[in-house]
Specification:
Layout: E1 2-3, E2 16-22, H1 27-37, E3 45-51, E4 56-62, H2 72-76, E5 82-88, E6 103-107, E7 110-120, H3 123-132, H4 143-152, H5 158-166, E8 171-179, E9 182-187, E10 196-200, E11 203-207, H6 210-216, E12 219-223, E13 229-233, E14 236-240, H7 253-258, E15 264-265, E16 268-269, H8 270-284, E17 291-294, H9 300-310, E18 318-320, E19 327-328, H10 333-338, E20 344-346, H11 348-351, E21 355-360, H12 367-378, E22 383-388, H13 410-413, H14 416-423, E23 427-430, H15 433-439, H16 455-458, H17 466-471, H18 474-477
Parallel strand pairs: 17-21, 21-22, 22-23
Antiparallel strand pairs: 1-19, 2-5, 2-11, 3-4, 3-5, 6-7, 7-8, 8-9, 9-13, 10-11, 10-12, 13-14, 15-16, 18-20
Helix pairs in contact: 1-6, 3-4, 4-5, 8-9, 8-15
Length: about 475
Amino acid sequence: MITTNPFDDDKLREECGVFGIWNAETAAALVALGLHALQHRGQEAAGITTWDGREFHTHRAMGHVAGNFDRDEVIRGLPGRAACGHVRYSTTGETALRNVQPLFAELSSGGFAVAHNGNLSNATKLRRDLVRRGAIFQSTSDTETIIHLVATSNYRTLLDRFIDALKKLEGAYSLVCLTPEGMIACRDPLGVRPLVMGQLGDSVIFASETVALDVCGARFIREVDPGELVIVSEEGVRSIHPFAPVRARPCIFEHVYFSRPDSVMNGASVYNVRKRIGAELAQESPVEADLVVPVPDSGTPAAIGYAQQSGIPFELGIIRSHYVGRTFIQPGDQVRHLGVKLKHNANRALIDGQRVVLIDDSIVRGTTSVKILQMLRDAGAAEVHLRIASPPTRHSCYYGVDTPERAKLLAAQMTVAEMAAYIGADSLAFVSVDGLYRALGEEKRNNAEPNHCDACFTGDYPTRLTDQEEATPVNQLALTAERVDA
């Protein structure tokens, strides 16, 4: 078996999505609805935990939300007016049911469920220290480290123990936690991963993206601030900021690819930002062509922006099938070769004989681009000029995105000219780092104090990488001089 989306094998994988609701008559059903809207952030597994005032109930399953949480008997088995949920794509830990979130444990203060979006860059060190002290881990997920830190804290109240645990973490996290005392939602001090707050009647909702609020009919209230804890209980809603303030560095790739285009991120419409990225590309890297064609669906808004800025017509020169299952059995090499067209197929009537500007969101290993370029050539494209709506991905992410090791990133090994030759493009260009920031409404990147985490492009990591430093000699972690593009 192989995936039916071979092009996506070369995509950066979304991290995870979280959703929580307090004081709702049909809490589990609303969480399931919210997770449907966040399915793009994690398609490997899903889970929901509820609290009915007496005990906790959990259902976790491999696969999509649909098929696992759209059955009445599953929702009936999750009673209670408070619930949290999670969709997962693993960046740490094996693909197994024991790693599916929310993770749950019985602490001295009662049950504790946690749903986590992000990745801890010191989880291995923390785990090793906890095991030496007698902790027994049930999963290989970095999220379980948080539970053990809360359980072993010497502070008296659950909230103080939770804060004590958070202060030991490095990396990125947005958390929704469910306890008998209430729900806690928080973001790491840098705000790398997103988290928003909404309201539906008397219910309070937390979600990774605003689109999940829209689907539930909830009203967006605000983003959870970087370093903020929002506590919701029978006494109401309160907010605390237990960390020393630092300059926020939300992930810039949320705007490029991860978030749904109908979400609002950091006060900006994701769709509009992606259109502006395309416009920046058209200004920075113009080319004479007949058509602007997106790689659907993630390249579409940028392609619209490129077409509007350049005056070149926008056309759907690649058609995506939305009716392909996750896997299928391939009986032979010939069918395996044809399988690449199950997800995307060139619109030959448009492409034949045309000079095409092809817009995609990123290049990782380059295998996706090679297949798409060949597909367009086979459809008769006279020229294919590839334009990428992000800067070259030259560095791995350690904050919840499944990027390959740096040696497997095409842009870390080749110049742009070499990449174009490898992919088979007549020309290749990426939006500049400054152009990406301009699309976000900033004049350019402030190299001294950037407003986003853009480490995958620049190598400027906003936190320590303790686990990486211990696994790799420091001199190998230092930024290597980039090759000058030919």
